[in-house]
Description:
- The chain contains four helices and four strands.
- The chain has 156 residues and is an alpha+beta fold.
- Strands 1-2-3-4 form a four-stranded mixed β-sheet, covered by helices on one side.
- The longest helix has 15 residues, at 17-31.
Amino acid sequence: xxxxxxxxxxxxDENDADVHALLVDLVVDEQDHYDHPRETRGELAARLRxxxxxxxxxxxxxxxxxxxxxxxxxxxVLFDPGTGLEAEIAELYVRPxxxxxxxASRLVAEAMALIRSRAVTFASAWTRDDNPAARAVYxxxxxxxxxxxxxxWLPV
Length: 156
């Protein structure tokens, strides 16, 4: 096919059966590349939707001391782009004087309780390689490094 014959258009109908079938094919194929539970084509077809818009929720969990002063926070974002409810631990921060006391673990445990209670299909947590404390907290909560490569774009 000549590239002159190709049109690029914005999805207008979220219920477009052909686009839905493409989404299912994509996820079925991608499952072979990752070491996590597989879903059947039927399960995927029931769950996936090509939505032109989606909404999300912000949940900011705050650890406070006995005098109600904040010691740290964990910001959890929930959103459904059409593939099922996803979550990201967008931020985890503990004040320096409260570190190494279990505050981060308790915050992430509460985040995971929220994530599990909402039947999230995918969750991520981002941190740097040079932050072993955060990695340890996330790994203790069940997060694992993945085979995926994350590419980022930042405006210049």
